[in-house]
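Tutorial sheet, problem 5. The two components below are modelled jointly, 608 residues in total.
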Amino acid sequence: MAFDLDEKLADGRVGFFTDTSVCIGCKACEVACKEWNAVPDDGMTFTGMSYDNTVGLGADTWRHVAFVEQRRPLGHQEPGVGDMDFRWLMASDVCKHCTHAACLDVCPTGSLFRTEYGTVVVQEDVCNGCGYCVPACPFGVIGKRETTGVAAKCTMCYDRLGAGEEPACAKTCPTDSIQFGDLDELRERAERRLEQLRAAGAGSARLYGHDPDDGVGGTGAFFLLLDEPEVYGLPPDPVVTTRDLPSMWRHVGVAALALLAGVAASAWRRQS
Amino acid sequence: MSQTDVRLDGSPGLRSEREATPGSAGRRRERLPVPRADFESYYGRPVLNEPTWQAPDIAGYLFLGGLAGASSTLAAAAELTGRPRLARACKAGAVCALGGSLYALIHDLGRPERFVNMLRVFKVTSPMSVGTWILTGYGPQAGVAAAAGLTGMFPGLGRAATIGAGLAGPALATYTAALICDTAVPVWHEGHREMPFLFAGSAAAAAGGLGMLGAPVSEAGPARRAALLGAAVECVAAARMERRLGPLAEPLKRSRLLRAGEALSLLGAVAGLVAGRRGGRGRLMAMAAGAALLAGSACTRFGIFRAGMESANDPKYTVQPQRRRLAKAKAERDLR
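Model answer (structure tokens):
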């Protein structure tokens, strides 16, 4: 192959490792992201969903801290609420910067592109707001911004990377729950952390998005979770939709030929 | 020096919090476990972001694009077999549907003035890009075919354009299946094997309806046969899709629009045949049948669109099929 994505990406690809086991739910990442990227407000509403009022990722939310309340123990922790087991799960979600990115594949203008850091970024001066990337994303990350009419999502602070700075969210995270760096190194670090947590009795800990053999070829932003992905609003087995596109085109081709043949057959006899 | 940075260039400065162990404060007492729910989600919120596509624009385009494409093919077939009035009606219908398609597509853009940006690339991975180029090839031919057919000028050029549009028509009528299936929307994506056939059938039924509406009964034989064939293919494809999708087919099975679409299509196709038997006296009935077929095709497209939106907005349609897929993969691994 002339162009090998995996080889290209292995060369200097950066990413996020979000270790949710040390997230304290301070939302400093949300604020830092908004500040640095000048992301507009996404509505001032109280949802009643624990302490989460940003709800989910979208055009105007590029970092989202999930708050999960569970009547279950966390490791050997004493919850301090009488006889009730209780634990918080907090996790800062972000664009996954997939190896096989559906948003990038389906973009009809070439506005979405792969950067030299292996990240996926929208060129907002090229995007015409067709909205195709929105349903293409298996994680529900990208959205169309009402005010500008174009797609918007996390850029992994493309402008900061060029200046040798880490992204704003990772820079501000007070517990290093969000770690930024060379993706291979982050993966090794995540494996070590997982072993450490399992040894400490947190049997439910697992990595999410770290596996290059998963449905999206591994993600540039991956996570250490303490429960099933869907508990955090993440899909358990995301697959890049374009994986099935060759099959779709084959079926479209057969259907188009069948339509042509069917109409021709309908008019086979000449008018007398 | 900052401790927090893990920079592009190098060595991470570790902070102690990174190694903190959750729940390390002490021993725990025995407690009663709480049973887990069999399906979990984040406060019932959808995993996917809701498509920003508006039903009148995009479902409308699915209908109009199918109508335009199949009508051009029917027009070419009618012209080549000596049915000038059927050909003229189909060409006029196709160019009107094309106009509606272009309006809907551009209207749905967040920045309509930038629609030409889609002509700066060709990407086979993006059905919308492929469709833009199909429209770019098909549109002018359909326009020339209609103009020449209605004015009678440049008959040679008109015939070439009619045949060109007739050959490009099926591509326009069916690529829209890939357009919606190439998304993470569960019902659309998982239905990708049957969707092109469902759309081809629905398009043929709509074009047949248009032919019955616009051409005299004596010339509309091909329209009646195309409508019957199309309605049958549409219904079979829908039934197959619903069976294959299993629990994921719920939004399709619940859809009244889809049922109405199938009923109108079949009714229109059969009524069209009866009108054909009655010859010249069946003109009114043929027109009613044609209108029913057009309405049926529109209902089908809006029904598919709505069912997809519904499946995107409920996390269970995203999570449960993926869970089943994981369980199946695990079972297969365990067997080996």
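Marking note: Chain B is about 70% helix and 0% strand. Full credit if you identified this.
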